[in-house]
Amino acid sequence: MTMKRSFILGAALILALSVNANAQPPQPQIVSKADMSTVEFVVRDGKPILMDIYQFKDQETKGKRPVFIYSFGGAWAMGSRVDALCNPLYDHLCEKGWVCVAIDYRLGSARGRDGKPLITPPDGYNPFQFSIDIGVEDIYAATTWLIKHADEYNIDPEKIVISGSSAGAINSMNAEYYICSGHKIAKDNLPEGFNYAGVIPMAGAVYLTGEDDTELKWNKKPCPMCFFHGSADPTVTFDMERSPNRHGFGPYYVSQQLYAMDVPYMLNEYFGGDHCMALLPLKWFWNEIDSFMDRIVLGGQNIKVHAVERSDKPRTDANWLDTVRPGQYEAVNRMRGQGGPGGRPQGAPQR
Q: Is 80 exceeded by the pLDDT of residue 39?
C-alpha cells in the first residue's frame, strides 16, 4: 500500500457515516445476536439524544454486569451510534457478560447546507474545544443515566469502561482527564467520587486549548487505559502536538505519565500506521481488548504493556473493503483540506 493511498484511506476511517448534516439518512440494518433496546438518556436544546443498550437478557451471570460505552468517530461533524462495524464486537463482549452501550452525542462541528454551524459555541469558547466538551458532557449524561438505572439493567456502576474511535476516542480521553484534573464539566455532570474503570481509545488523544494547557496535570490517578494508535497518524497525535491554538497529548505521551503514576495500561502501537487504527480494533484486536478487560479492569492486575506491531505489508490491505463504507472516499476528499487535530510532531522519536 503506498503512503499516499495509506494517508487517504487512513483519513477515511475518521468518518462514521458520510451524510449531509441536515439529512436523515436511512439507518443501516443492524444484525446483532444480543438483545437491543433504545433509550433517551438526555435532552439537549429540546432534542432527545439516544443510546442503544445491547445485552443478553436471559444470560446467567455472577453478580452485576460490567459496561462498555462506545462513542463513534466522524470529526465531530457526522456519524451515528448506529454502526454495523461495531456490532460484532458488541456481540462478543455481551457473550462474555458485558452490557454494551452505543451512544449518540452532539456534533459541535456539523454544518448545514448553507455552510453555517448547526451548533454555535458561546462567545469566546474555542470551537474545537467546544466540540470536544459537549461530547464529553453527553458521555457523562449517558454514564449518569446508566448509574441511575443500574438495578434495572443489572450493571455494576464501578465497572464502566468508555471507548471510542477518533473523535469519540478524543472525547473519551478528555472525559477521563477532566475527572482526574478536577474540571468543572466533570464536577457538574457526574456523581461525586465517580471514576471509570477503564478507557479504550482507538486513535485518540487529550486535546486542550487553554494558554496554560501545555502539559497534563492529574490531580489524582486516572483509571487504566488501553490505547490503539498508529505511530504515524497524521490526524490525531501519537506523541504530543503543540500549536498556537491547541495542545495534543497522545497515547505515547500519556502512557509515560501512567507509568510514572503506577497506573496499569496497554499501548498497542501500529508502527508506521496511520489513522486506520480508529476502526481496526473493532474487527482485528479483540484479543487485546479482552486481555485489558479481563486482566486489568476485572482482574485488577497492575500490568504495563507497550506492544509494537510492525509489518512490511499492513494487514488492512487484503481486507480494506470490509472496513470502508460507500461514500467515505468522497467525504474524505472534501475534508482533507480542512485540517484536523494532530500528527506526529517534528522531532518526535521514531522507534
A: yes
